[in-house]
Amino acid sequence: MKPLTILTGINRTSEPSSGSMVLVGDLYRAMPDTRTTFLGRTPVHQGWKTAFDHLIPLSTAKQPQGPGFDTYLDELTQEVGQLIEQIRPDAIHAQNVGFALSLALSRTAGTIPIISIAHGPEVMAAERNMAEYDAVLEVAGASAAIVTPTLVLADRIDRLTGRRFTDRIVVIPWGIRLNDAHVRDQPSAGSGPLSLVHAGRLDDNKSTITAVESLALTDQPHHLTVIGNGPLREHLEQRTIELGLRDRVHFDPFLPRAELWCRLPNFDAFVFTTKGLEAFGLVLIEAQAHGLPVVYSDLPGVREILGSAGVPYTSGTPCSLAVALDEMGRDFHRRKTLIKAALRNARRYDITATGRQLRDLTLRVTS
User: Fold this and answer.
1) What is the pLDDT of residues 123-148, one digit of tens each?
2) Paired residues of 311 in beta bridges
3) Residue pair 142/112 in contact by the 8 Å Cβ criterion
C-alpha cells in the first residue's frame, strides 16, 4: 500500500521547545505507513530533522497580530500555496486551529482534506480576541475533522464555535514515548520533607508562583526544583528571596526532554500548577511514567487525564497546595499507592496509540 502523505507544521523554530513541539516530533515518528513534510522555522534542531521525512523552513518573515499581520498572512499564504502545489499531499494536518499557518493552509488546500489539531493556546487567544476568534471559525469551517486531546477541550471548542462543527470534533488523547521512561527501583522511604519538581514555561497561566508561595505555608520543609524559562523567571526568584526560601527553592533553566527524563526519577513528587486552560499537560504523564505521584491544580481537563491517579488542590491557592504536600509527606504508604496508580495511568497514554488513531482518522477523511 502506498504510504499516506501528510503536510503539517508549526510556525515556530524547529526544535522541541514546548509540549506542542515535543508532541508533534513524537507523533509523526510514531505514525505508521505515512510520509510527513513539516513546515517550521529556522534554526532547525538536529534531532528534529529525523522526526519527519522532509522539513521545509518557511521564509516569510513572521509577524504577530497587529498592523502588519494581514500583509504577513497574505505573504505566508502565497508561500504555503506554492509548497502545496509542489508536494500535493494526501492530507493536511493544521496544527493550532486558527493561528497564521493553519489559516494559510486552509486557504490554499483546495480539494486536499484538512484535519485541524487543537493545542490549547489558540483557543485561549480566540476567547480573548475577535480576530483570533474569526480565524478559529475559518479554519474549523475548512476542516473535515477537528482533533482535541480531551473531552473538556472538545466542549470548549464546540461552545466557542457556536456548536456549528460538533460532528467534526474527534477526541484523540496525546501520548509520550513510554518505552523511554525509567522508574527508580524504590521510592525514598519514610515520611518527612519531599523533594518536589515543577517543569514548564514560567508564565502567568502556568502559575509557578503558587508552588513557590505554598512552601512558605507548609509544616514540613519541602524542597522544590523549578525547571523552565519564561517571562516570570526573575519575579519568581525575587519572590523566593522575599519569602526566605532561597535554601528550599532551586531554579534550573529549560532542559531538553532527554535530560529532564534523566532527572525526574530523582524526585519524590511532581507539582503541577496551571490555573487556566490546559489542553492536555504532557508533563503530567511524563512525571507519572517515571514513578512520580502528581499534585495538581484541580482543573477539569487535568482531572480527565489523571482521574484518581493524582492529588488535587484548589487551583491558584498556595494554602490548599501546602496542605496537599504536607499530607503526602506524612503518609508514605499513600505515596506508594499513588506511585502505583501513576504508573498504571501513564500506560494509557502511549504515543503509538495516538499515532495510530490519527492515521486512521486521516485515512477516513481522505477516502
Assistant:
1) 989 999 999 999 999 999 999 999 99
2) 295
3) no
